[in-house]
Design brief:
Order of helices and strands: HEEEEEEEEEHEEEHHHEHEEHH
Largest sheet: 5 strands, antiparallel
Helix content: 40-55%
Length: about 350
């Protein structure tokens, strides 16, 4: 009887005990979390191969995957926590998300990530050639007039002016010869010769004046073209006077006078002014062809040559000490030698 009761008691204990099966944990493990999304451009187009990186906010090493053909990405098997997502793709601005909170078992699908085109910087280099600089500088010179009337085309108030091309030297010479004041000045000079009866072989009256006028203009044209265009182009010399404007009056005066026989080469170096000196004597020699027979000879050649060189020295003194103040259209930055 007692034995039977004990057996029943054991059976009751066994029936009331929990059943544990092999291969199963006593407590259920929570389901893993995940984060997924899609990468598009601003127009809604798929961005293939974007580099998507998910990193925990605590600084743990991140995981990186590439967006697929549909622009989609997914990070499965994540532990809950806080994360940050970054997306990088060629041609687009980088994307960085705000902090993402992921809860246990959450299957988080992010809003569409739209990448903006990368800002492009275009470097445009504007280079101006020496010829273009010289062209603009010559244009300014062609506007220079003392008191707004008398030509001052051959004065350069820019000490380091760009060298003139051969074409610009011819252009400036022709511009000087066809300037209205050139004809007026020649007329005044011819009238003075007629008054003093210079070159008496021309005679007097209207005919004599016309001959003197033609000879005077021819002298100027030959001297200008040979000394300021032809020889400077061949010898690579600059026919302009470069205003100094600094130093003592004595040094400036000596500089101005010396520029009748010394000039600046196209290479920027000072050298003998072969162009103007030889041009003056060459013009004097050619003038024998049209001056009266009684006035022709070596004396005319030498006399005209030295007269031109001497007048050039006096002209340079006026350029250095007077013309700059009386020429209104000189740019403010053109102040001579620094």
């Amino acid at each position: 009887m007692i034995k039977r009761r004990f057996t029943v008691f054991v059976l009751l204990l066994l029936c009331s005990a929990p059943v544990v099966s092999y291969g199963q944990s006593v407590a259920e493990q929570p389901a893993a979390s995940s984060i997924s999304g899609i990468v598009l451009d601003v127009n809604g187009g798929v961005v293939l191969g974007a580099q998507v990186t998910l990193a925990a906010s605590e600084g743990a090493a991140g995981r990186t995957i590439m967006s697929d053909d549909a622009g989609q990405f997914s990070f499965p098997e994540l532990a809950p926590g806080k994360f940050k997502l970054t997306v990088v793709s060629t041609g687009f601005e980088p994307y960085a998300s705000a902090e993402i909170a992921l809860y246990p078992g959450e299957k988080l699908i992010l809003p569409e990530i739209r990448l903006s085109p990368a800002a492009t910087t275009t470097n445009i280099q504007v280079s101006v050639t020496q010829v273009e600089i010289a062209t603009e500088q010559v244009k300014v010179q062609e506007q220079q007039r003392v008191l707004g009337v008398f030509p001052n085309f051959y004065s350069s108030y820019i000490w380091d002016a760009a060298p003139m091309t051969a074409g610009q030297k011819y252009q400036l010479a022709v511009h000087s010869l066809v300037d209205p004041f050139s004809f007026v000045g020649t007329g005044i000079f011819a009238a003075a010769e007629q008054w003093q009866n210079t070159f008496p072989g021309y005679g007097q009256g209207a005919q004599g004046y016309a001959k003197r006028y033609g000879a005077a203009y021819a002298d100027e044209a030959l001297s200008r073209m040979i000394g300021s265009a032809i020889l400077p182009s061949l010898l690579h010399q600059d026919p302009r006077y470069f205003y100094r404007g600094t130093g003592s009056k004595k040094s400036r005066a000596l500089y101005a006078i010396s520029q009748a026989v010394i000039c600046r080469g196209d290479n920027g170096k000072m050298q003998p002014n072969y162009s103007y000196v030889l041009g003056s004597f060459a013009a004097g020699g050619i003038s024998n062809l049209y001056h009266p027979a009684g006035d022709r000879g070596v004396g005319l050649t030498v006399g005209n040559g030295f007269l031109n060189v001497g007048a050039h020295a006096i002209d340079n003194l006026a350029r250095e000490f007077l013309f700059r103040k009386l020429t209104p259209k000189v740019p403010d930055y053109a102040q001579g030698k620094p």
